[in-house]
Design brief:
- This protein is mostly beta strands and about 120 residues long.
- It is built from no helices and eleven strands.
- The protein has strands spanning about 1-5, 10, 15-25, 30-40, 45-50, 55-60, 65-70, 75-80, 90-100, 100-105, 110-115.
- Strands 2, 4, 5, 6, 9, 10 and 11 form a seven-stranded mixed beta sheet that branches. It has a four-stranded antiparallel beta sheet with strand order 1-3-8-7, with no helix packed on it.
Length: about 120
């Protein structure tokens, strides 16, 4: 099982980024896939999740209305579209797969929002 997060970078406040989580080794829509982030000196927090099966989506209040999670089963990839980025969104972002009693993490991708 592998999860590979990518798409981070440096962006100005108000800008956009799209993160990708490329997966392999399991059937994507049979697992809940989540995006988490961890800022320096802070605990890792959940940002968004897309459920297995029907793909119900969930968002932290801090990103609701600005971030969109989506899933492409054919490409085995989950995306996080991030718009109207703020400095407080600066963090390392991780993707996670959870299902069947298993829990897998990918490596992080750095997102820095700064002028």
């Amino acid at each position: 099982v592998q999860l590979q997060a990518s798409g981070g970078g440096l962006v100005q406040p108000g800008g956009s980024l799209r993160l990708s989580c490329a997966t392999s080794g399991f059937t994507l829509d049979e697992y809940d896939i989540g995006w988490f982030r961890q800022a320096p000196g802070k605990r890792r927090e959940g940002v968004s999740c897309i459920s297995s099966g029907d793909g119900t989506t969930y968002y932290a209040d801090s990103v609701k209305g600005r971030f969109t999670i989506s899933r492409d089963n054919a490409k085995n990839t989950v995306y996080l579209q991030m718009n109207s980025l703020k400095s407080e969104d600066t963090a390392v972002y991780y993707c996670n797969a959870n299902g069947y009693g298993d829990n897998y993490w990918g490596q992080g991708t750095q997102v820095t929002v700064s002028s």
